[in-house]
Design goal:
Blueprint lengths: L4 H8 L11 E5 L25 H11 L6 E5 L9 H9 L6 E6 L12 H7 L3 E5 L5 H8 L3 H14 L10 E5 L10 H16 L5 E4 L6 H9 L3 H10 L14 E4 L5 E2 L2 H5 L53
Parallel strand pairs: 1-2, 1-7, 2-3, 3-4, 4-5, 5-6
Antiparallel strand pairs: 7-8
Length: about 325
């Protein structure tokens, strides 16, 4: 078995990593997407067939109803592309108590003819939008996400602003920055200031927060690093940039991650690496409906060398940087 350097690093800093009270249920509804982004850790794309079924959605909803987990984070792929997306969101936002729903949106999907009215639906159901926007310049965005993506993203953001997103406190609009190449994100507060200035000045766009997220060497991004002979160099950067102060805020501590088939993981990156929760040491793989919500707290978190990405520099989570750099 390969040595888990990350566990060794945690032990050396006396920084145990175990679960706290669950605050977020993150559901990866599938790998289907209208884009094929270079940094995608899901390996998502237009030809992927993996999507959540109505049966799985109903089982997740049934389990969630018996918990007090307040936030449901929908990711993919492009979550909006699964046939039961609206059904799932309507059920989530109709629960008592109401669950706060987040949609990790690539923006361009909102302009696709087949998804006409999707932006209005999200606003009506008061769904928070977390949108990928790797830069405020056309060259950088199109290089990472494909030709024409920048212009489409701008049009989608302007549509969302017209619906009240980024202006109405009930309609949060947050953007996500991923660096290009083998580098860590710059300071989040400074980048947010730059984004807000440039997007407002040139396009009249407003938004709430910018989240900086470090690219994790998993799936498509890992393949890019291997093919360009940069994987070793990037891993060295992540390891050398380990910040023990980031451990306390790691998303895996208060988030349960679920696949489109209901399998359970500590995070979306572990899901892509098939590091599924198991019933005991080497036991059967667990699905969400196998769990007793009351017994999840203090569970050990499965780690690997990819975890250095979330603890490098200012740290990285689905909600951006974890500490001041």
């Amino acid at each position: 078995m390969a040595l888990n350097r990350f566990d060794t690093t945690l032990a050396g800093h006396n920084a145990p990593l175990r679960r706290t009270r669950t605050r977020v249920l993150q559901v990866n509804v599938g790998k289907l997407c209208n884009l094929t982004c270079a940094h995608c850790h899901v390996n998502a794309g237009p030809k992927r067939k993996e999507i959540m079924t109505r049966e799985t959605a109903d089982r997740i909803l049934g389990w969630l109803e018996h918990t007090d987990i307040p936030v449901v984070d929908l990711t993919g792929g492009a979550p909006e592309m699964i046939p039961d997306f609206r059904y799932f969101v309507e059920r989530l936002t109709s629960m008592t108590p109401r669950r706060h729903v987040m949609d990790r949106c690539n923006l361009t999907i909102l302009l696709e003819p087949a998804f006409d009215g999707m932006a209005e639906f999200l606003a009506e159901r008061r769904v928070e939008i977390v949108a990928s926007m790797p830069c405020y310049s056309v060259a950088n965005v199109d290089a990472q996400r494909g030709d024409g993506v920048f212009d489409a993203s701008i049009k989608a953001l302007q549509l969302l602003n017209r619906l009240g997103y980024g202006r109405d406190e009930a309609l949060p609009l947050n953007l996500v920055y991923n660096p290009q190449g083998i580098s860590l994100p710059g300071p989040q507060a400074e980048l947010e200031e730059d984004y807000k200035r440039e997007l407002r000045a040139h396009f009249g766009i407003v938004f709430n927060r910018l989240y900086t997220i470090t690219n994790v060497p998993v799936s498509r991004f890992a393949s890019y690093l291997r093919h360009s002979n940069q994987l070793g160099q990037y891993m060295d950067l992540l390891v050398e940039s380990f910040n023990p102060a980031a451990v306390e805020g790691l998303m895996c501590r208060d988030t349960i991650n679920v696949s489109w088939t209901g399998e359970v993981f500590d995070c979306d990156f572990n899901q892509m690496l098939k590091m599924q929760w198991r019933d005991g040491q080497g036991g059967r793989g667990l699905s969400l409906w196998d769990l007793d919500p009351a017994l999840v707290e203090n569970r050990e978190i499965l780690t690997g060398d990819h975890c250095y990405a979330c603890t490098a520099g200012a740290g990285s989570s689905c909600g951006g940087a974890l500490v001041n750099p």
